[in-house]
Amino acid sequence: MVQGTRARAAALEILRRVRAGEPFDAAHDAAVRGLSDLDRRLTHEIAAGVLRGRNDLDRRLRSLVSGSWRRTPVDLKDLLRIGVYQITRLHRVPAHAAVQATVEVAKRTEGSRAAGLVNAVLRRVVRGEGDPAPAPEAGTAQLAESSSHPEWLVERWVRQYGFDLTRALLEHNNRKPPLVLQPVRWSRERLERRLAEHEIHATPAPFGAGLTVSGVKVRELPGYDEGGFVVQDAAQARVVQFAAVPLNATVWDACAAPGGKAAILSLRARVLATELRRDRIPRLKATLDRVAPAVALVMADAAAPPLGVESVDVALLDAPCSATGTLARHPDGRWRLSERSVQRAAALQRRLLDSVCEVVRPGGTLVYATCSLEPEENEGQVNRFLNRHPDYVRDCDDLMLLPPTSATDGAYAARLRRSP
Question: What domains lie within the chain, and their CATH numbers?
Fold first, then answer.
């Protein structure tokens, strides 16, 4: 077998699964079973890179594929994208190796005729053919094309944030996000010291929320088995800080997966974590068992609370959302979104808010959070909630983190106080 073939075949499998509707993380985990660590890393980088740069890759390929690019079979398109991505953006991979391995995958999956096409097109790319002039950036359509984002989303963001900030946001989404560790059962000082002892370089994350590391395998880090930390972006840690949960409070984390917030809150409060989606329960349970075994875990729907009315001091509703603030972390996310999906998320959030709020005692706090950048899911959602529930008021200004200015994922949170 040509060296690297398995990684390219796994990358193709990820792209197939994503096209079929499977989330990137799940598709990746299924596709890389049995691969070496080196092949796993290469697989992730290729598949994520193709998804982040799809429009730009397609722009190059349209001039090189004879016949209509639109009529090219979808697997063949993905194989060509995989090859072009390696040649043009993975400079540590020799061009001849990228061509040879991709052609081998094409031969095994699509047949000799398709392999011949892949070989011919990729060799033209190696020779520098089909290198289009950069797309002009005069308007939203060109900006969407050059950044590989849906045009409707770019237009929406330009209206909200202006052209320059939107361009910075798109650039953020096309960069590999950092890996951030949040101390839980270990202090930050102990975690820093142990990382240094293992010659792992760590830098402070934004807002002082955790430590950023790179080039590591999480499960092999010091403190992993002991529950010393969780992996959590600084934006989500900032939401936990913003919640300002009182010491020894009773807290309900209503949509708790993957469990990082519940784990950190358990350092100062009694926490019940609930989650509706059965497929998320194993990961949530594994996280809590490792870092926060005192947290109670129940499979339950936040729309039908498993708690009595006015029974908790703090309810945290980290609501299901469009997740437009985490597109750098989820490279397939941009291609799943639609304006209708944003509206569906907003409708679900309204229903959850109206249920969760009943569980908060008088004088208690409802913390509403999303990883969305969309106003109808964020401040607009909270404004409508307050109109429906006059017994709640804002306790402080809302938190809004926009990736280009915060250097984190995007996040929103509101802290709402129930009248005594």
Answer: 5-126 (1.10.940.10), 140-173 (no CATH), 179-230 (3.30.70), 241-418 (3.40.50.150)
